[in-house]
What does this fold into?
Amino acid sequence: MNNTILLYDQQIQKDEEMLNPFADTGAILRFVSESKMPVAHFWTTPPTVILGLQDQRLSNLQGGLKSLADKDYIYYVRNSGGLGVVTDDGILNFTLFLPDKNNITIDQAYEEMHKIMQQAFSDDIATGTIERSYCPGTYDLSINGKKIAGISQRRSGDGVAIMAYISITGNQKKRSQLMKDFYEISDYPVNEKIGFPKIDIHCMEGLDILLDQDLTIDMAKKNILDTIEQTYTIDRSQFNIVQKSAPYLDAYQQTMEDLIYKNNKLAEVNE
It folds into this structure.
């Protein structure tokens, strides 16, 4: 394995940039698959709800989207499965891209993210589904039963992307209430085939509260990078060059076109 990892630290500040991180994900996966070089990707956003493809099957999605807009949240659908999450300036989105996909099982990839989170923040971080959280999953990360992060994966070519949504600071109960309201409005009448979340706003919390620390996004990034540096040498400059390459731009454009198509379909719901 290449012992150098490229760092991409991204901040989404404008509505028109909201699809960029997922277009980047498709392009980075192609780069990692072809170059065999790992990448660490951080990104943060303004107040936004990122919906999964499954959310498009909600029976009253139009009502749910209106409830988000009424509360001044941007929303869009990503190009992968799962359910909705809230992201804002207190949420750190972190993706670890690794080559040699066929030598990393699905569980091993999830466990790699779990191990990084334990070393960066606390040995008390456990895995297991927090059923009444939003976007519950088998590899939810929690402390004392309170979810602090969710993990998902994308696999393409010879690369794997292990994506973590991490609540660092901010009002997690408010985020949970937002998603609770969204699903209660959107899932009416109740979809009998899909078990959309019945959210308990008390089952998720921020790392700063659970660790009793004055954490910030920058401090969280440093903790994660310090952990990664135990294995890799971090290259903080070369990614800008990679991003301008023809193969990267081609993969980025392909993914972006798919995202735009899906979000145009989402926009039709509100017409």
Remarks:
- Residues 246-269 form the longest helix (24 residues).
